[in-house]
Amino acid sequence: MRFKETREYYEQHLVRQFLRIRKLKVYDAIQQTIVILYPFMLVGSIMELLRESFLIKGSYFDELFGTVAMIPHANGINFFLGSMSKLTIGFAGVLAATEVARNLAKKFDKDTQMAGVTGGLAYLILTFYDSDQGVLGFTARSLGFSSLLFGILVGVVTGYIFKYLSRKVDTNQPKGSVIRDRMFNSMWAITVTLILSAGLNTVFYLLNSKALTPEINRLLIQNVMNTHSAWVLTGGTALSIILQFIGMGSPIANGQMMGADAVSNLNYALQHQSAWNIPNPINAHGIIGIYTNIGGTGATLGLLIAIIWVGKGRQFQRVAKQSLLPGLFNYNQSTLVGLPILFNIAYVIPFILAPIVNLLITMSALKLHLIPSAVYQIPNGTPGIFMGFIGTNGSVQALILSLVLVAVDVLIYVPFVEIGEKVNADLNQGGDAE
């Protein structure tokens, strides 16, 4: 009884704190924007799932059933699905800039359409480049799911420029006058935003594509690829997940990092016809890319199951069920934006904790020789719960461990699902953001 009362006290305290932050105008605008991205991310992730699992030579279902040879015009379908994925998930930053600017303008009683169009255009200007060969394009890092943070920042800046440099929308004017006045009322805000974007183009390009993000990714991958240190693996995993939480992408979430140690392990396993007793059992390839993030960054398969199990909100249930299929194959973009998880402080603790717990359990199982090491290459599009099984060449112990980890992740997420639903219930009763 004492434990129940203590839990309820801290749960109510967390709900109050989360609710206070959630009601901030800028935070509310970001959360609304992330949810709006859901249908695009769901479609894109399903397209990517089909392409990676069925239509790439050597992929999971191609290895099982020879789908590339069996499906007519597989290469053409592969190209179409890849294009659809890039034009949905790839435009996450542009959509974020547009919607954050529009949502903020609405909260400030400014012109939402003008602000939204300006925010999207400002993002494209910031990431635009003209090469020496006369080829026009956009920086590679600006068109992808990892561009969300940059899109959100552009949208926030645009929204506040409209707050201070444009006039409020007068809905009492005749329609013809409103249409003309919208241009003049927003002219200064549009001009300043676009000039600022053009002026910062070079700086933003350097931060986004040549310095900040790739440098962080490179350092993370280099430091975890050949390490045997539990501390380095844990720290690298935590930092990678935090980067995903703030919309910068997770460089080591599910990658098969075949460094020197992983190659040495593979050679040993092939030579001895066994994945047991390899020289370097604690390594990134055999742990992070296979067991740590089952369901995608943040081990979100456990979250989806937790919502389906204990969730009461109809909309959350719907998102969880629709995102379950991509989640089984470690595509969780729709989960991250549909609930949402990104920038949602109600979920930051389990989002980081679940993968770290998975990491520690897996390292303990390896040290106790309860499972063999995952040393073999895994086909593209393999379901997350089968990655350990395939990476160990069919170890039942590895499959059982994957199922246990998912169950642990569910238990970690359950109390936070309940807290998240209480926050949203209170928000729906509490009115507008402050």
Give a description of the structure.
With 434 residues, this protein is mostly helical. It has two domains: 181 residues, no CATH class; 205 residues, no CATH class. It has 20 helices and two strands. A two-stranded antiparallel ribbon has the order 1-2. Strand 1 and strand 2 form a beta hairpin. It is globular. The protein starts with a helix and ends with a helix. 46% of the residues are buried.
Features:
1% strand, 70% helix, two-stranded antiparallel ribbon, 434 residues, 2 domains, globular, mainly alpha
Per DSSP E runs of 2 or more residues, the count of β-strands stands at 2
Q: Note poorly predicted spans.
A: 208-212
User: Helicity level, as a percent range?
Assistant: over 70%
* Whole-number total of structural domains: 2
Inertia-based shape: globular
Quote the beta fraction: under 5%
Give me the side-by-side strand order of the main sheet.
1-2
What sequence of helices (H) and strands (E) makes up the elements?
HHHHHHHHEEHHHHHHHHHHHH
The main sheet comes to: 2 strands, antiparallel
